[in-house]
Amino acid sequence: xxxxxxxxxxxxxxxxxxxxxxxxxxxxxxxxxxxxxxxxxxxxxxxxxxxxxxxxxxxxxxxxxxxxxxxxxxxxxxxxxxxxxxxxxxxxxxxxxxxxxxxxxxxxxxxxxxxxxxxxxxxxxxxxxxxxxxxxxxxxxxxxxxxxxxxxxxxxxxxxxxxxxxxxxxxxxxxxxxxxxxxxxxxxxxxxxxxxxxxxxxxxxxxxxxxxxxxxxxxxxxxxxxxxxxxxxxxxxxxxxxxxxxxxxxxxxxxxxxxxxxxxxxxxxxxxxxxxxxxxxxxxxxxxxxxxxxxxxxxxxxxxxxxxxxxxxxxxxxxxxxxxxxxxxxxxxxxxxxxxxxxxxxxxxxxxxxxxxxxxxxxxxxxxxxxxxxxxxxxxxxxxxxxxxxxxxxxxxxxxxxxxxxxxxxxxxxxxxxxxxxxxxxxxxxxxxxxxxxxxxxxxxxxxxxxxxxxxxxxxxxxxxxxxxxxxxxxxxxxxxxxx
Amino acid sequence: xxxxxxxxxxxxxxxxxxxxxxxxxxxxxxxxxxxxxxxxxxxxxxxxxxxxxxxxxxxxxxxxxxxxxxxxxxxxxxxxxxxxxxxxxxxxxxxxxxxxxxxxxxxxxxxxxxxxxxxxxxxxxxxxxxxxxxxxxxxxxxxxxxxxxxxxxxxxxxxxxxxxxxxxxxxxxxxxxxxxxxxxxxxxxxxxxxxxxxxxxxxxxxxxxxxxxxxxxxxxxxxxxxxxxxxxxxxxxxxxxxxxxxxxxxxxxxxxxxxxxxxxxxxxxxxxxxxxxxxxxxx
Lengths: 484, 283
Description:
The structure holds two protein chains of two kinds.
Chain A: H1 10-21, H2 38-44, H3 46-49, H4 68-79, E1 84-88, H5 91-103, E2 109-113, H6 118-127, E3 130-134, E4 138-139, E5 144-145, H7 150-159, E6 165-169, E7 176-177, H8 180-189, E8 193-197, E9 221-224, E10 237-241, H9 247-257, H10 264-302, E11 306-307, E12 320-321, E13 325-329, H11 337-348, E14 354-355, E15 359-363, H12 370-387, H13 408-413, E16 416-420, E17 433-435, E18 441-443, H14 451-463, E19 467-468, E20 477-481
Helix pairs in contact in A: 1-10, 4-10, 5-6, 5-9, 7-8, 10-12, 11-12
Chain B: E1 4-10, E2 13-27, E3 32-38, E4 42-47, E5 50-54, H1 58-70, E6 78-83, H2 88-93, E7 101-105, H3 109-118, H4 120-123, E8 131-134, H5 138-143, E9 149-155, H6 169-178, E10 179-188, H7 195-211, E11 214-221, E12 229-236, H8 247-252, H9 262-268, H10 273-280
Parallel strand pairs in B: 6-7, 6-9, 7-8, 9-10
Antiparallel strand pairs in B: 1-2, 2-3, 3-4, 4-5, 10-12, 11-12
């Protein structure tokens, strides 16, 4: 195959040409290169709003790419070793949903770990596929769920030979990777597709000594959040497919829900970021890995906090670990992760990615500087000095195995009633409850509300987690199925 | 020929000094460093285009950051200076025989090299055997030290750029920890006059007041700093800057100074009403 020049940026170039032509706009958007909205132009800058334009022949059309977007997608496909790459502008959520909708129809079974992002279960609500949950392995000391163990996947496949696909989180938010290559082999041997939520793994494609990527493991589809470790604008993302997938059909699926007014700010950011990663990714992620390792060493030297890494690898459910993820266990300081998360922001002006029951995650990326790492470490050292307390009475486990009663779609659309939280024990929930971030449901539609789950929800509220999902914004009530 | 160095004190205010010639220009890993010679102010050190010191008025800053805490603490033996690679604070500190050990933490080695070569007026005592220079990040250094120092001088640049870390709550907390139970921290506290400086000054005061039981502010007049009205923070675990101030004991030492004296010590803590208001709002 002819190698493309990764130095090129077709969408960026087309936008530059477009600006030089000084086209008079009698099309949308109505702000007309910013002139109609001076406050917005002042805020975002003239350069930015002048390329917030609509699809047109010289700029191609995301819905049906034939020129510059097509070329940019081909470049991305090459950079990511994929048969094809789709530029996504509705977030990685839309890429995940397109994977599920491409693989499953109503009534199809899909094997997945329960600790998936809500977008996966949302897709099941939309298409009516049935989840077969593989309970993720759990690290009791850290209280976190891990990857999928190969044995568990095998068991699920044997018990459900009619399943059409296996869905894998790789890596998890914490940086845990499953044995992707073996899972793909196993699934393919049984005629199942493999879909990978690679939202937190963009850098695997470019860094040296990184865990294996979905495309190199020959998975069939992967959702890649370019806007996370890849540096593109928020909401821009990539959907990668392997050679077994039908590109045209996947595009039709994407177009079921994706906007017809794809933002050129997002599209150009994907194009520019892909080039940056292809040309400089190796050194960028070497630097990121070094920063993360430096931070881990310094944090572990403070005492109390435990910034974990490759030592948790166990050959199966932690097959590999993403060393750019700075995940820190906080319980031994006597603080829930979310408490540390809040103190860092409120007292030290430091915003981290998330804090949950027992851990925090600080996202280290291509934009970080050594001196910012010093601030984080310095603040954690101070938090230990000033806030350390006994850890008695703290919840330690992030993951509660669900009791699945019915499918997400059935439960979501079924007749339901709203009850005060305390009265829902034993009932079947019809909505999601999750802490955001990380956005992994505590309850999904169709699951039984248990005492453990209610205790978890109350604890999370008390510790200051931002809970989302239910119709009732304050999460004082839950919708449950009527008569069940 | 007219050659002028200009610094913007705000987007709408410029401060200019006629330059005789440029003596040095270099870029370190952290910042751009320049040394100029001028008729009015003598030699001038600038970092990223901001005046750090001039030979004519540096004595005010260095005397005020040093002698105020030295006249309050009854016996300073170990001192930590954060920043201050120009050596001015060290020059004042080594005038005290009680001081046994000075650690100078400067992030930028090139600053020290340049000052030794072009600014002997301030760098002249950096070779004193009591002085130990460490080229590292101040925040990182203080994190690793506990109950060690009698006095910490935070001789930082402005809170925009490499000096940013030295205006954070975690840094002040680390300093608290690095001080002995009766230790004092004095910091360069920005100016109350122009809006941006005043906000930085207020934030710094808020964070220090949260970290130390005693937190007072004093002032000096420094002609080449923005507005000329400059503040220092006096943060302390035990000693009060006025009540525990022993003027007789200090005068006995016969330390030579040009700006500081024991009458001025007391007066420097009397602040204009608008400055008191800015400080009180966050106490």
